[in-house]
Amino acid sequence: MTTSFPWLSTIIMLPLAAALFITIIPDKDGRTVRWYALGVGLADFALSLYALWKHYDFSEAGYQLAESVTWLPQLGVNWSLAIDGLSMPLVVLTGLVTTLSILAGWQVKEKPRLFYFLMLVMYSAQIGVFCAQDLIQFFLIWELELVPVYLLIAIWGGPKRRYAATKFILYTAGASIFILIAALSMAFYGGGALTFDLTQLGLKDYSLGFELLMYAGLLIAYGVKLSVFPLHTWLPDAHGEASAPVSMILAGVLLKMGGYALIRMNVEMLPNAHAYFAPVLAVLGVVNIVYGALASFAQRNLKRRMAYSSISHMGFVLLGVASFTDLGMSGAMLQMVSHGLIASVMFFLAGVTYDRTHTLNMDEMGGLGKKMPSTFALFTIASMASLALPGMSGFVGELMVFLGFANSEIYATSFKTIIVLLAAVGLIITPMYLLSMLREMFYGKEGKAVEGQIFLDMKPRELFIAASLMLPIIGIGFYPKLITQTYDATAVQIAQNARTALPTIASNTSPLIRVAMAPELNEIDHPITIVK
After folding, report:
1. pTM for this one?
2. With contact defined as beta carbons under 8 Å apart, do 329 and 491 qualify?
3. Do residues 198 and 183 lie in contact, with contact meaning Cβ atoms separated by under 8 Å?
4. pLDDT, tens digit, for every residue of 354-363?
């Protein structure tokens, strides 16, 4: 559906423009700027919901609300925006999580004006990443988003905040170089008119070797953001030191940027290379699931345990992307939205607990259940969602990925069996580390940080934030179509294009492909189409 009004540019630029005005608002104690930032967040979120409700057609698979303005004509760079079923749910998720994160930072006392300025700039950059249709534009916005995160960790983080912030910027900014290299390489490939438009770049006839090289570089760039093993080590440190509002955005939105870009560019633009890398993604996915779960079990710091849990859950996104099935791809997209909601509420509740106990060490907790019953109840519900209890959004997403991968006709039965069984091991470990976390925090003998203390339970503001995230988690769990209908057409199109673009997979390819792929794929010498 097309519209003459620049909805996406307005949604992106409103928080950025408001951030500039926040620097001149008279304010002594931070109260004015926090209300101002919250109002901007709510207004932008409402504007995005209105634009999507009135002008977005859920039944269409292609791009909608498209805008394009010549930006840097000498370089072939345009301000080009559009959304489809892949990006639209993530735009809504970004608006919800970031607005609630602003509300979660209500009691920030140190440099509140700068804090809310950075939150609004990050709001704009995140939405810009999901809407950008020019690869150089995408790269610039991707880089812009890194600066607020770095400062938010470095200034308002814990005792090791500078180390965590520096590690974050070194990993993510360093990996981003691969995006720029890929953009320039793909734009200049084959000559012709210089363009960085994602659609035009995806239509180019690249050689297989070139595609594989570009795919590998982009996989590193997006694997860092998605926290794919072994590129994940920045995440536990960042979460361990970041404040609760920043952790909500890190887990709720930033990880999804990696998953989104992996599907948008690696799968859609480089489909031939994806067929060769898909078994690698499946292996990395199951490593993430099992390793993340085991590492989470070993953590004594509450937020580091949740960080490794996020690494484990992102493994299901990789499995879904590697499945080549409609159901698997739909499950990967649902997993991103679901985890964004679940992780956000988990880290928020961890922040609520820290505000009362002043510790993240679970050895110093215990017996909090009687003193903070509302927090206990909500933490339990969020943990049940994280361990994929039926009736919660996490269950639907992970089940779709499992079934989608298990029913894929692309892989050999033995390979699928091993991957599914190992992923199931991760699912078994997940309840163990989450339930033990609840036991150590809320049951048993009172720990050093709890004994003899009187704690104020959750305030109405905090209950509202948690409830705003819990409602869609439960709603999607009971009625998955609430979210799947928004992207079904796009998921089917992406999976179908990946299947029909399968290149020749000859018997002289890598050992992993020979073992992983179905035998019939190793015997043909021409492109094939796998029918659903």
Report:
1. 0.90
2. yes
3. no
4. 888 888 888 8
